[in-house]
Amino acid sequence: MNSKKSAYPESWYPLCHSSDLKKGEPLLIEAFDGKLILFRSEDGSPSVVSRFCPHMGTDLSKGTVIKGALRCPFHHRTYGKKGECLKVPGLHEKIKGPGLKNYPTIEKFGLIFMYLGQRPLFDFPSFPRVQRDADFSTALRKDLKTPYSSLLFNGFDTHHLTCIHNREIIAPPIMDSESPYHLRAAFSMKVLIERFYDIAVKFFGARVVDVTLDCWGGNFLIITNKRTKDNILITSVPRDQENSSFFLTTVTNKLEKGLFAEILQRLRLKLTTYLGMAFLKPDEVIVEEMRPDFRSLHPQQDLCVMKFWSFLDSLPKKSI
Ligand code: FES
Ligand SMILES: [Fe+2]
Questions:
Q1: Which end of the chain has fewer CB atoms surrounding its CB within 10 Å, N or C?
Q2: Residue nearest (by alpha carbon) to ligand 1 atom 3
């Protein structure tokens, strides 16, 4: 484990699938250099706290969760959902020890997210076309041997869409922003047929795709395709300085009534998620071991990346 502290933008980060976190057992989070753990409190809500006990530094992922409180395996101090010390065994009940660091957490779309920071600078972003909580969602995870920064700019690199994704940009991207923590790019692209994947996209979608990218906090990327009902979220998280993970999630509201319509909708959602992963496949090899260096960007071809990079630079950063 690398002891050097890395700082990342204050944002919402995906940690794991909801089903990975069982009640009664702490879970070591494969993110942020393994410095955090998750556990479910009595009401089932997830809590993210620091991994090492402030008493003598014991690894709390080896602890137990009893009635929603996390118990250290060594001297049995217990911690509540906000990381507060509840009990120091052997001492008067009024005497408490120091607590654990705790982070805002939310469970959405079958995933658990945390906010890197004490108080969110922006709310958990919502999809422009999804009302309330989504009715259906599917999420897939991918682990990459890629430094985190190499992964982030990919969505805004419109230039590479033609080179490796068989998409031809047909009008210059329009970019705007609705807050200091948000950047939007909208563009249209033509689907060029080269792979089975492209045929499927044309069949289920359209020959021309109108896409809007809404990026929050640098890593929370909502992709809306105007011509289809697809709402896609790509969120990424650093595992350590050399590795990162991302989750691709598709979400939707229930569109039509009836069991058959519902089954079809769920199937379509799954298919969109798998097609989304297939779309990103060529990126995996490219970004592996990549070291981003943006001194030679071209303002005509790489305008989106340049804007994204200055956006990323402007975001407040935190380390764990
Ligand atoms: S190390 Fe955790 S209670 Fe002592
Ligand atoms: Fe890509």
A1: N
A2: 75
Domains of the chain by residue range = 12-115, 136-318
Tens digit of pLDDT for each residue in 287-299? 888 888 888 888 8
Q: Which atom of ligand 1 is nearest to the CA of 56?
A: 1
The mean pLDDT of 150-155, rounded to a whole number, is 88
The span from the CA of 48 to the CA of 83, in Å, is 8
Nearest CA to ligand 1 atom 4: 75
Mean of pLDDT values over 312-319: 96
Neighbours of 15 (CB within 10 A): 25
**Residue among 287, 312, 306, 295 nearest 154 (CA):** 287
Q: Which residues line ligand 1 (CB under 6 A)?
A: 53, 55-56, 58, 72, 74-75, 77
Q: Which of 250, 233, 284 is nearest to 11 (CA)?
A: 233
Among 31-40, 51-60, 142-151, name the one with the lowest average pLDDT. 142-151
Confirm whether pTM is higher than 0.90: yes
Determine if residue 67 is left, alpha or beta; phi over 0 gives left, psi from -120 to 50 gives alpha, anything else beta: left
Q: Comparing 12-115 with 136-318, is the CATH topology the same?
A: no
Please state which architecture CATH assigns to domain 12-115.
Answer: 3-layer Sandwich (2.102)
Report the 10 Å Cβ neighbour count for 123: 10
Q: Which CATH class is domain 136-318?
A: alpha beta
**What would the pLDDT profile of 156-186 be if each residue is shown by its tens digit?**
998 898 888 888 888 888 999 999 999 999 9
